[in-house]
From TrEMBL:
The organism's taxonomic lineage, starting at the top: Eukaryota, Metazoa, Spiralia, Lophotrochozoa, Platyhelminthes
Superkingdom of this protein's organism: Eukaryota
Disulfide-bond pairs as recorded: C371-C381
Organism (species): Macrostomum lignano
Annotated TM spans: 139-161
Classification via SUPFAM superfamilies: P-loop containing nucleoside triphosphate hydrolases
Chain residue ranges for the region called Disordered: 22-48, 92-127
Active site positions, chain numbering: K189 (for sulfotransferase activity)
GO molecular function: [heparan sulfate]-glucosamine 3-sulfotransferase activity
Official protein name in the record: Sulfotransfer_1 domain-containing protein
Stored Pfam families: Sulfotransfer_1
Biased composition (Basic residues): 97-116
Length: 436
């Protein structure tokens, strides 16, 4: 049998049958080629079957290359019709050894030369080469596969090892504007600016310079949270963004809005203080006209009086925020011992200790107030509009105000569980935010 290896790589068998007698002759005539009497069958299984049948009928001895077994599934009938004595010797196939292959090839090439068919010889050689290289191909394939597996394993190990390595240092994210984490909600004239400025000196705090009035002015509220965020200073991760608007403390809707828009995690700072001692100075308007009615009694509808009923406003905030989210700063202590009050604020905001040291503050005798040492130790004092001289208040008006605020301050003490120095002894209780 000889193989025909077509250009399209399909293998076809061309089998030749030798009559036993002629074959014997051929052998005896030493290397004289056998006379091919068979016929080619390549594609048609029917042709093959017929050819095989005819050969059988003629009594031909079949010599079929094992290559032709390729067609076996197509034929559905055994293709190797071998007589018993030929079975072992006539097989050419995967077990083909070099010597056999050589003889097979040379016999083919001789026959080809004889035929002078160049194309046939080329086909035969290609066919033989195909069979010849198959084990090498398999070997190469196996080597390639092994190399691939080894590379994959190496890659996996490398990836695992890389996971254990510390990542390269990345650049810190750029500063961003953030919604406030904390708001100083009030109270007016109690030292809200001083508290904010002192806190701003802390490296972990970014404070808004001006009052934002987002929750107390409808036109600003309408601009939305993105506008509100846009009013905030740029801050780095880990920094607390703080704004102060003392009007929030007395605005009815502010606690509800703040809770809804900033969440229950928002920290609230409230600073309360007693009125400053009356001193020399020009009143913008006499205090009496601001807090007393025509009959000379304290006017409960006066804005100044209403603002000073602290427990009422505080109760409203505590309806919307848990008590542990709100910290009250003693405004008087902030003036006298700022580092002590700021230690408590740092604790409340979980800030690293920074402002809790006395050396962080410098007393400014001209102003009569402490100034804070900011970043790079620069001294920062409040502007001339803070720490002003107050107009004198008559002792009669003061007594009226104290009497009015006594029950309110008691309720505030009950609500907060704290007694502030400015509340005085129980019989002297009275606090007003009447500074003008
Ligand atoms: N360190 C320091 N420097 C200056 N002033 C200080 C300081 N600490 C507290 N205070 C007192 O703060 C008062 C002003 O309060 P506020 O900032 O809350 O006022 S406002 O509501 O923002 O208008 C301000 O009151 P006025 O003097 O009436 O301005 C001061 O008495």
């Amino acid at each position: 049998c000889k193989l025909r290896h077509r250009i399209d790589n399909s293998i076809h068998c061309q089998c030749q049958w030798l009559r036993p007698k002629q074959k014997q002759d051929a052998r005896s005539q030493s290397k004289k080629p056998a006379i091919p009497i068979g016929q080619e069958f390549s594609r048609s299984s029917r042709q093959k079957a017929e050819a095989i049948q005819e050969a059988e009928e003629r009594g031909d001895e079949l010599k079929v290359a094992e290559f032709c077994q390729i067609y076996r599934p197509v034929l559905k009938t055994p293709l190797l019709w071998l007589s018993e004595q030929k079975r072992s010797s006539s097989l050419i196939g995967p077990s083909l050894n070099k010597r056999r292959m050589h003889s097979f090839r040379s016999s083919k090439s001789r026959r080809s030369r004889k035929k002078g068919g160049q194309q046939l010889r080329a086909d035969d050689q290609r066919a033989v080469r195909h069979e010849d290289v198959r084990p090498w191909r398999a070997l190469l394939l196996r080597i390639g596969l092994a190399a691939l597996l080894a590379a994959a394993a190496l890659l996996t190990v490398a990836v695992l090892l890389r996971g254990h390595r510390t990542p390269p240092p990345s650049l810190p994210p750029p500063p961003q504007q953030q919604l406030p984490h904390c708001i100083i909600i009030g109270a007016r004239k109690c030292g809200t600016r001083a508290l904010l400025d002192f806190l701003d000196a802390h490296p972990n705090v970014a404070a808004a310079r001006s009052e934002i009035h987002y929750f107390d002015k409808t036109d600003r509220l309408r601009r939305g949270l993105s506008w509100y965020r846009g009013q905030m200073p740029h801050s780095r991760p880990g920094q607390f963004t703080i704004e102060k608007t003392p009007a929030y403390f007395v605005t009815e809707a502010a606690p509800r809005l703040a809770r809804r828009q900033l969440g229950a995690n928002l920290r609230l700072l409230l600073i309360l203080a007693r009125p400053r001692d009356p001193g020399a100075g020009r009143p913008a308007r006499p205090l009496e006209r601001l807090v007393l009615s025509g009959s000379g009694r304290v006017n409960p509808r006066s804005r100044m009086i209403q603002t000073s009923v602290y427990h009422r406003h505080l109760r409203r905030w505590l309806r919307h925020f848990p008590a542990d989210r709100l910290h009250i700063v003693d405004g008087d202590r902030l003036i006298g011992e700022p580092h002590e009050e700021l230690r408590l604020v740092e604790q409340f905001l979980s800030l690293p200790s920074f402002l809790n040291r006395p050396e962080q503050f410098v007393f400014n005798s001209t102003k009569g107030f402490y100034c804070v040492r900011g970043r790079r130790q620069r001294q920062r004092c409040l502007g001339s509009e803070k720490g002003r001289q107050h107009p004198p208040v008559s002792p009669v008006t003061l007594a009226k105000l104290r009497a009015y605020f006594e029950p309110h301050n008691l309720r505030l003490a009950e609500l907060t569980g704290r007694r502030f120095a400015w509340m005085g002894r129980p019989e002297q209780l009275g606090a007003v935010a009447y500074k003008v």
